[in-house]
Design goal:
Chains A, B, C, D, E, F: Residues 167-284 form the HD domain. The structure is a homohexamer of 319-residue chains. Chain A has 319 residues and is α+β, with helices and mostly antiparallel strands. Helix content of chain A is 40%, strand content 17%. Chain A contains 10 helices and 5 strands. In chain A, helix 8 (222-236) packs antiparallel against helix 9 and helix 9 (243-254) packs parallel to helix 10 (270-293). The first copy, chain A, is elongated. Residues 1-5 of chain A have low confidence and may be disordered. Chains in contact: A-B, A-C, A-E, A-F, B-C, B-D, B-F, C-D, C-E, D-E, D-F, E-F. The interface between A and F is large, with 48 and 47 residues.
Chain lengths: 319, 319, 319, 319, 319, 319
């Protein structure tokens, strides 16, 4: 039995010992059949997550082991109803001297923040339409910090730290290439639409570590919230009468493609249609690439909920 | 052959003579098989409309007989492909001395504007929640003129002058009664939702006489436009942080009931669900009552497009 | 550990002791892993229900502890897979001297039977159409007892004793108000439709205590059953040729609104459409009000299956 | 120009002369562009139908040339908007001495009435379940005349005189064979279901010559009407408590297969499912055989509305 | 406690002892809460299947007890979460001297292989179209062995050894009868379509004992695979230009009836439509008859997934 | 009145004279109300098409003026029911000395054939997987002529000469860029899928000038036809056992994305999903760009049937 902390909790096997730091993502109280209190902890590091039970939990334990708390834990990996479960041997909250940080325990985009902001800045610099450029710049300034840390969704695609910026930067790259192949496309409009289309998620989602929906997110959703934000920003910049503002709102409003998918109007401008397709393409490639990485040639991935529950096959032959 | 102008163009029969004033709603140029230009005019008064052909139309005719122009016309009612058509014997644009006004030629709500504004004011006066009351008051002040003249839709229900205010006032009456039967309902919230739910139509539709969709209406629709307006108004009134604002936006956003019908979020607050149902109830009763008025007991109405294309039966026995 | 029977089984917490009378709603035999027989009992009083296990159940126990039997039980509230479970310390069937009655153990409408029948009688008294009035009176007479005890459904809305009558009486109140706002509505027809629309449920459902579907209910459903009943009743009253009978059948037949929802014909008479909408409105308000009562301001209700699985938010501010 | 009456109006070509008797199926008044009245007549014999215009129609003409009147007509086959149209040279109502009868002018089933009733009687004779046999016998007795003359539908399949009986007799033949292949099927139940499933159409449709829907047919439909009829008949025969009655009602109720297609309950008894499939099979074969008869090998039929608008191909090779 | 092996594992009850041979259909490794390895075995004979746990499984056990291995087992029938489970007292792999064969442990069609091939041969002998007959003969020759052993599906209908041939033979019998009732049907085409329609399943499914989908089956499906096979066979027989080949491919391609059900083209030839309906009829009768056999009169079957999840009622009265 | 032949028939206005060569796409016989024969001709050149009537058409005319015949025609542009119609003054079939060719009268891809084949060859040259490359090369060789002349569809997108090759070449360009952005994509597989996905259209469609569906196209469709072709080709090249062949068939089979859209299997391999999206993207851009070219900034296009009947707006501001 040796310490396997190096490989991360997402890669341990049944029977492994574990000794290291983990972040509590969720903590639920329970009662055993003979009435003893216990805690079910969902623990994670940047590689994945695992469930653990803390038996005979005292009132103090309940107040110590709460979501977003980092813990030092030693245990053994067992199994419960077909899933790995961590048997806790010892556990304590982390201390300042441990020098561990919440941000170390969440999955991150494969590209660094600096590089992401650089790419974004480059795209904005390319834009020639002053109105669109000013609006985009103002939003980047307002939300820069959150934009670089938020995921693009709570699950399915780009659901990791900086996922939102990573998604935007990938979409900008596709747009750039498409514009070269089809010069009729209005690049500035497409860029502006791509950069702003999901920024409403910053108000729709609660944060990076334990991402849930805010009340505003539940009752309004990121699309109408963003239409309102663009309206307010246009007033501030005194460009509210420019047609660019209306068209940009339309791109954001229609980017889910259909009423059933949350866009009260379908795309009715060429760049709106293309924004929708690029969004789909990048989200699907992100999901597919990450799922296929986890399987060997000749195998199928797990079923992907956001892709109509399909399991994908990885061929045996290679490029 | 006698002059039937008294009964209004909506009530003439084939063979009737006609002599009176009509409003041009639409004018389309055409060319006969031997190349002669003519105008197809869609003419209306407050009772209905009829098509007419102006043969051998000169360039001058084309510039005189345009939409929203009132004309003095004498003719005979004939028939073309199963529909009445007015054969023009003489026609001239109206003159100031004729003392006729566009507003005389459009259908109007069965309740006077004064009475409508009185009813609205009463409802607002009943409200006790200061935030909701202030927002509603501000909108009524901003849009009073348009609110009292706009139709509630381009067709289907309340599609006449003051239709929007008429629809609101009827819904308020239903809400008042429901609140008495179910005191759990938050009356202030329901009233505010009813008054504001369709005000976005003032920007979505082009006007009263020849109602079409504005560009903003086509690309955004009245629901997202109104969310933005409430946001801006709340900032002005410095109440943007109150939960009432969020809930009111949700009521407006969800009042179509389903994503497929244009509401990106379904009703998730009790009063939002009830607003949706009252809207449906009042719109359907308006359509049904007006269609059934046109048929005799023992007959079916024409098919009503907005009610799944059903034709309704009017029973022979009476209340 | 004190006796908490006062507050009712629907309000006990894990750890509470319990000593009181409960009604058996369901009793299922099981076998432990080492082959010992046991009974799983679903027990209820007017406030709610709880599961209990009776270990080492003898043949005699199996014959004593059956559905609709009241038992005197002492035990402790524990937990099993996240749900409360009653640990039985002692249990015996109730005796005549206990003076407890099945009707004390089921949830009831918030309005007394006397008041419900009074309201129904008032409505019938208001009716002026002799044919409709006679039919309605005859049905009330035939089914009075069941009508006042049956629930309106097995679950979702008005699923409690006298629920059917409660639903009818609420709908009549809405109809009365709507008729005042829209005098075109045929009140007699609407009243007759409301009173009869769900009476078929008396044959579709098995009863008040352990409500299930009868064979006839499963194979025909309450709507076609009621059409047949109206036909038979009309023959008895010798009014089968009156148009009122046909229209009344149509109201009952179409009250679910759509073929997919069980109405082979959609509403094709104004009052049929309004009956459908009032039915919806009252059912939804019943569900919403009862769910929202259980949560605090700022919280969401549980998901409501019959309302497209939505969870509803209770705002923080009040009327 | 020779008289082509021998081949029937359904087989004439543009340019043919016509002289013979025809039945008026529909007569509509119109007005020419210069205000002259005319009649549009839809005329038919057993082979098909054709449109004709009677110009300068007098008031007397309007009262003579009405639906279900037979006329003696001479004319020429022309064409209007791509469809054949009969140019009337002379026309007069038929006289008693002409010895022509409405029944000669409608399409008929390919099997004689005598043979149809014989087949029906044979099937009933084969039945051994007394309850089912009595009910079926009673219905045959009650409706024999109409059963042998009604079509099975206004269009699509078996839409000719005796079509209803023809459809039943074909279905009985399929059922008999299926019962031999699958002896588990309850033949008596299947026979009873087949014979009664569409008898409600006798009240749903107006008759044989100009088949439309009755008011009862529009507001209730043949399925609920038949459930009621079986209920009344069972009371008369005092078998209303037998399970056969309930199951037979279920077969009739569910024979359209799905709620969307008019059956509030889907088939929940084996013979109900098989009744639905035999109904489908026979209706489709009737449509297919009659459409394919009209085209040559190597051609497609016209699009068949009731078969999802498909056009069917007739192969070049033969059996 | 007596040995109940005679009645087969599908008919044992909780508490029965068992001693006999069973086939392993599935074997899954698990780990108890205290880390001990065990095997979950799914065991079957021709009458049904049961789960069993082999506790403290050694590495050797893991290699001995694998799918398609027959074992000699003694144990007792217990229960786990409402389902029977076999408690293993002793178990060993079968030996050659046991003289047991995998084919004895799978469910079989109720008709012997010899009789099935005889029926098939008869049908082919009846065919008069040389092209169709040659193609069918060639396929029967190529796949005879598999055709007589394969099931028609992994579940739902004819999911037993020889199920494919059984399904074909039943369908041929229905087709023969239908052809007598409707002589317009091209019997040769219908026969050829029936025999070939599901032969692609031989490549789509993995075999008889533990039937799963092959990779080709998952990525292409039996319909496109069979179109290709008919094309290759037609080339071999040098009949690829005959229209019969195209029409036969169409029958196979369209036999699922709709795009949503896997047929890229709907039936566009009469016999294609009839093939689809016969396929449905035979599959449904197979499911219904087998499910109804398991219940008593007055009961409902379990819900049948492939029949829209309906449970079917077995009436109390009999034929 | 001057000769406007220079600008092409697609650009003429009502009142213009016309004198030039046109191709007959369709010729239909008709009969006037007084029985005179005439021909309705649909005439086209590379710029568009127009209808014309040839009155008093003789038998000789009927045999001269047939589809795919080029004619020399002088006439005047009039109007019929809102659409331009050519009034014929004189018309004669073209003569060899006119030196006009059918290929001059059809719309062509904006890229020359030489350039298209060059691009295709480059892509194939880039491929490294020998099996995929050999199959693609073999198909290009087999169908080169047709591939370079066929349209990609009968209407909607790339519906012009060389449209198929143009569509393939555009998709290859997108694929190349995507592969650079997402190197995980198997470029060879994607290229092979793109090149072959629509080649079945060569057998599904009848040709370039008057494109209709072949019998095989109607009964099988291009997707199953192409699966069969790949199978036959793989046998010829003796690579039928390679997994590449199966995966390539899957890409072609699934490229419509869903069963409802004609793919019996949805994409289950990453490159299949991406092929589907690139196909969509290129088809939509082709439609959008061509429709938007025809309108001015500030206008909407006509409704595009293949894009859910949407009309697209062209913004006033520019890139």
């Amino acid at each position: 039995m040796k310490n396997d902390v190096k490989k991360g909790i997402g890669h341990v096997s049944v029977g492994d010992a574990y000794d290291g730091f983990l972040l509590i993502r969720e903590a639920t109280k329970g009662l055993t059949s003979n009435g003893k209190p216990f805690l079910t902890l969902m623990l994670r590091d940047a590689s994945g997550e695992i469930e653990a039970k803390l038996w005979d939990a005292s009132k103090e334990d309940e107040s110590l082991f709460v979501p977003e708390q980092i813990v030092k834990l030693a245990g053994e990996v067992g199994q419960f109803r077909g899933k790995p479960q961590l048997k806790i041997l010892s556990v304590r909250p982390s201390q300042p001297t441990d020098d561990v940080h919440v941000s170390d325990f969440v999955e991150k985009a494969p590209i660094e923040k600096d590089r992401l902001i650089e790419k974004l800045t480059e795209a904005i610099f390319e834009m020639q339409n002053a109105t669109l450029q000013r609006i985009v710049r103002a939003f980047i300034k307002k939300y820069q910090e959150a934009l670089l840390t938020y995921p693009a969704a709570t699950r399915n695609h780009h659901e990791y730290a900086s996922g939102l910026a990573h998604h935007i930067v990938s979409m900008l790259a596709i747009a750039k290439e498409l514009h070269q192949l089809y010069p009729q496309l209005n690049k500035d409009l497409l860029y502006a639409g791509i950069i702003l289309h999901d920024i409403g998620k910053i108000k729709e989602l609660s944060g990076v570590v334990t991402t849930t929906y805010t009340l505003e997110g539940k009752l309004l959703g990121h699309i109408p919230m963003m239409i309102e934000e663009i309206g307010l920003m246009a007033e501030e910049l005194q460009v509210e009468e420019e047609e660019e503002v209306l068209i940009l709102k339309h791109l954001v409003l229609s980017h889910h493609g259909k009423a059933e998918w949350g866009s009260p109007k379908p795309p009715l401008v060429r760049e709106a249609e293309i924004l929708h397709l690029i969004d789909l393409l990048d989200a699907k490639l992100n999901m597919l690439n990450r799922s296929l990485e986890k399987v060997k040639p000749g195998e199928f991935t797990e079923r992907l909920f956001a892709m109509d529950n399909r399991a994908f096959y990885k061929p045996l032959f290679e490029d």
